[in-house]
Amino acid sequence: MSTNEWEAPRITPMEFHQLNKFGQRRVRSDAQEAIDGVPVATLVERFGSPLFVTSEQRLRSNVRRLHQAFASRGVKVIHGWSYKTNYNGAVCNVLHQEGSWAEVVSRFEYEKARRLGVPGNRILFNGPHKPRAILERAISEGAHLHVDHLDELRTIEDIARRRGKPVPVALRVNFDTGFSEPWSRFGFHLESGQAREAIATVQSSPHLELVGLHSHIGTFILDPRAYAAQVRILCGLMKEVEADGHTRLDYLDIGGGFPSRNALQGIYLPPEQAVPDREEFAEAICAAFLEGTAHRLERGDERPALVFESGRAVVDDAQVLVTSVVGRKQLPGGCPAAILDAGINLLFTAFWYNHDVRLASPPRGEPRETVLYGPMCMNIDVVRASVQLPPLQPGDRLVISPVGAYNNTQWMQFIEYRPAVVMIHPDRAVSVIRTAEDLDSMCAHERMPAHLAHPDNVIPFPAVG
Ligand SMILES: Cc1ncc(COP(=O)(O)O)c(C=O)c1O
Q1: Nearest C-alpha to atom 12 of ligand 1 is from which residue?
Q2: What atom of ligand 1 comes closest to residue 259's alpha carbon?
Q3: Annotation: CATH topology of 16-53+317-439
Q4: What is the C-alpha separation between 114 and 116, in angstroms, rounded?
Q5: Ligand 1: distance of its center to the CA of 388 in Å?
Q6: pLDDT band at residue 13, thresholds of 50, 70 and 90?
Q7: From the CA of 35, how far away is ligand 1's center (Å)?
Q8: Taking the complete model, does pTM exceed 0.90, yes or no?
């Protein structure tokens, strides 16, 4: 017969930050013992802990549903997979197989998309830093360039002049929708006249052709009206630029920013209540888009394509992090703390989300407020500052979710090896999609000058000082 550890009786004060809007404590007492039908214990036995676990099935259904939400409203839509969100090759290829293009923002991301086999004409090239050599390659491969600033525009014009062939470009613009904090760092500012100046520069150049407008209004946007306003502004600008009689835009790109079902810190309601459904975003966007592009049909033309570049809404809930308790502590105030083998080195998003944390085995004992630390020798390595969990023991596994967005790209190689990333396929087979780091991979980029090759070498130089 198994016995539970004895716990002293205690009274738990109902502290404000622990309560939901019904005055109850948010307690997650259900365990997550399997991921897509594969037991967590088996995954850890085979691939170690910590471990990122990606669901191919969820990834596919997320992007299909998003696509469907637009297509079912009569809009020709293209999804550009935002590489920076998670550029693991297997993740990217699942999405490319589903028809997503690549949305890249750097030389590295462009080269990675091409290496994965994405043709240039299915790559959207954003970002403020596109060195000349990569621009030349992207132009020769027919990528869709989204120009960020005037210096870049001049470089592209110069490349086009030397090639003796006009280059199609889209301009990134930024503006205030009135519903979300404006992002004015990227692209050309509309209200100040910069965007119209850039448009005029393109339209008057024999070497450039304006084919699209792009804007990305921010991330984790919770109000669908922000997108409706964005689309109205872009459609208005499209009408203006097409008034010259020969410009004809192929697409309007609304960027990314749809929220995932993650618990953003500082938001009182749980994600199920705070985050609108994808259908609400699609409805707001498509209604504004169909209205704003109707003039095209009136003149016997087709509507432009609508491009969206969703990152976190596609991948966040398709990945979890499995971590193990390595030790326990009683903090001076009496609160229990657990030290985990995964910290902010792997979970960059712990800075702005209160991730869901569940035991991977049936809980023993009553949940209570617990602090979760990572393994870094740093005070800021806090995975959850306060979460209700049953008493933890070394060796317990925890499942942290959703973690698919921005962690496998923004994680830090700091102090610890980064662990393996696996993918569970629809038939429950499991593949490693990124191997765990080891000493060789950590040191692969280092070079040792000959006279430093041995720590006990006698220094052959005159004494310093
Ligand atoms: C240009 C662009 N597109 C798409 C995205 C993806 O955003 P999200 O993950 O919020 O959908 C980003 C993220 O910053 C971005 O900068």
Answers
A1: 256
A2: 10
A3: Lyase, Ornithine Decarboxylase; Chain A, domain 1 (2.40.37)
A4: 5
A5: 32
A6: low
A7: 27
A8: yes
258 alpha carbon – ligand 1 mean position (Å): 9
Tokens of 158: 């110069």
Strand runs labelled E in 92-148: 101-104, 123-125, 144-147
pLDDT (tens digit, 9 = 90+) per residue, 395-425? 999 999 999 999 999 999 999 999 999 999 9
CA–CA dist 420, 187 (Å, integer): 37
* Residue 20 pLDDT exceeds 70: no
Contact, 52 vs 408, CB < 8 A? yes
- Residues with Cβ within 8 Å of residue 452, at least 6 apart in sequence: none
* Ligand 1 atom index nearest CA of 406: 9
Q: Measure the CA–CA gap between 309 and 411, rounded to whole angstroms.
A: 22
User: From ligand 1's centre to the CA of 255, what distance in Å?
Assistant: 6
Residue ranges, CATH 3.20.20.10, the chain: 126-310
Atom of ligand 1 nearest to the CA of 172: 1
What are residue 319's DSSP bridge partners?
A: 54
Backbone angles phi, psi at 350, to 5 degrees: -65, -15
- Give residue for tokens 């028809």: 99
Looking at the chain, how many residues does it have? 465
C-alpha 231 chain-centroid distance: 22
Distance CA 362, CA 38 (A): 16
pLDDT digits (tens, 9 = 90+) for 179-210: 988 999 999 999 999 999 999 999 999 999 99
Using a 10 angstrom Cβ sphere, with 0-12 exposed, 13-18 middle and 19 or more buried, the burial of residue 160 is buried
Looking at residue 12, what is its pLDDT?
62
- Pocket residue to mutate for ligand 1, from 84, 264, 408, most atoms within 8 A of Cβ: 84
Residue located via tokens 């806090």 = 382
310 lines ligand 1 (CB under 6 A): yes
Residue 458 φ/ψ, nearest 5 degrees: -85, 130
For ligand 1, atom 16: residue with the closest CA: 216
Inter-residue contact 407 to 351 (CB < 8 Å): no
Q: Which residues of the chain are in CATH 2.40.37.10 domains? A: 16-53+317-439
| Ligand 1 center from residue 274 Cα (angstroms) | 20
Q: What Rg, from alpha-carbon coordinates, does the chain have?
A: 26
Question: Mutate which of 106, 213, 219 to test ligand 1's pocket (most atoms within 8 Å of Cβ)?
Answer: 219
For residue 311 and ligand 1, the question of a CB distance below 6 A is answered with yes
Distance 173 CA to ligand 1 centre (A): 14
What is the topology classification, in CATH, of domain 126-310?
TIM Barrel (3.20.20)
